[in-house]
Amino acid sequence: MKTINLDKNFNSFLELESISFEAFTFAGGEPHIKIKSDFAITEQVVISHRLNSFNDLGLLCVAVDALKRMKVKEINAFIPYFPAARQDRVMVGGEPLTVKVYADIINALQLSKVTVFDPHSEVTPALLNNCEVIPNHTFIKKAIEHIGETPLLISPDGGALKKIYKVSEYLGGVEVVECSKSRDVKTGKLSGFKVYADDLQGRDCMIVDDICDGGATFIGLAEELKKKNAGKLYLAISHGIFSKGFANLTQHFEKIFTTDSVKNVAEAGVVQINLGDILDK
To answer: What total number of domains does the chain contain?
Structure first.
C-alpha cells in the first residue's frame, strides 16, 4: 500500500511510501492534480486529506478520479475531521443537512474504505459507506500520560456523555462528572452551565470533547468547575479549530491537548498529539 498526502503538512502514514504529485488551483478556482507516480493495477492507495473547505473536498475528488484512471484497484481515504459533522440535524426550517451533502459526495467516489477520527456523532458513520471510526481513546490516554496523574473526566454535555463513558471504560474506570449547558438554536448563544457534583474537593479535571471552535463552552464550564472546588483544569479536544485563538482558553486551563486533524498548532500551553501516533496500523 502507498499513500498520497494531499495536505503536505499532514502525514499520518510515515511507514508507507508516499506518492508524489503536483496540486494547484486554476485561475477559475477549480482544484487540479497531476500524479507523477506509476502503479501496478493491484496497488492499494490511501489518500489522506484535511477537508477544511469545499476546495479541499474538490481536490480529494479529482485525486480519486486520477487514481482510478491510473487503474488503481483499491482506494481508501483518511479524513481525520469530517467536515460539517456538527450540521448533523436540521434545527430550524430552511437549513440543509450539510453532513449528508458531504457524505453523498464522498459516497459517490465509491471508495473501498473511509476512515474518520472521533466523529461528532453517530450520524456521520451512518451516512458514510464503508466507514471505519478511530475513537478518541488513545488520544485521551496519551494526554493523561503527559499530565502524569489521572484526572476526573468531565463531560461537557449530554451529547458527549456516551463517548466519555467509553473512554472511561478503556482507561479502566476513570471517574466521570456530568455537566450540561443550554443553547439557543436560533442564535447559538450558550447559557445555564451546570456541573452535577457538589464538591470536587480540589481534584484535577479534564474536559473531553471532540471539537473546539470558539471555546465558549469550555470557558463557561471552567468557571463553573472552579466554583465547585476543582483543582487544575485540562482540556482535551480531538479537533481543534480554535477560531478565536487561545488567549481566553489558556487563562482557564493548565494545558490544552489536541491533535493535528484540522491544522498544525504551535502555541504555548497547547500540546498537539500527531494522529500518526494514534492510528492503529
So the answer is: 2
Claim to verify: residue 147 and residue 270 sit in the same structural domain:
yes
* Residue 21, CA distances (Å) to 8, 34, 74, 171, 274 in order: 10, 6, 18, 41, 23
For residues 25 and 149, membership in a common domain is answered with no
Q: Report DSSP state, residue 156.
A: -
Structure confidence by residue, pLDDT tens digits, 75-106: 999 999 999 999 999 988 899 999 999 999 99
Query: Quick count: other Cβ atoms within 10 Å of Cβ 247?
Result: 9
Cell 481513546: give the residue: 137
pLDDT per residue over 163-197, tens digit each?
A: 999 999 999 999 999 999 887 656 567 768 999 99
**3-state SS assignment for residue 1:** coil
**Which of 114, 134, 154 is the last residue in one of the domains?**
134
Closest listed residue to residue 18, CA positions, set 36, 42, 31: 36
For residues 114 and 149, state if they share a domain.
Answer: no
Task: Report the alpha-carbon distance of residue 13 to residue 90 in Å, rounded.
Answer: 36
Q: How many alpha carbons lie under 13 Å from residue 121 in its C-beta half-sphere?
A: 12
Q: Using CB atoms within 10 A of its CB, is residue 262 exposed (0-12), middle (13-18) or buried (19+)?
A: buried
* Same domain (yes/no): 126, 212: no
Do residues 110 and 142 both lie within one domain? Answer: no
- Return the ∠ at Cα 45 (arms to 41 and 48), rounded to 5°: 160
User: Nearest Cα to 257, choosing from 104, 132, 164, 141?
Assistant: 141
Same domain for 169 and 87: no
* Range from 151-155, 178-182, 185-189, 248-252 carrying the lowest mean pLDDT: 185-189
- CA–CA separation, 29 vs 169, rounded Å? 47
CA–CA separation, 104 vs 97, rounded Å? 11
Cell of 20: 508524489
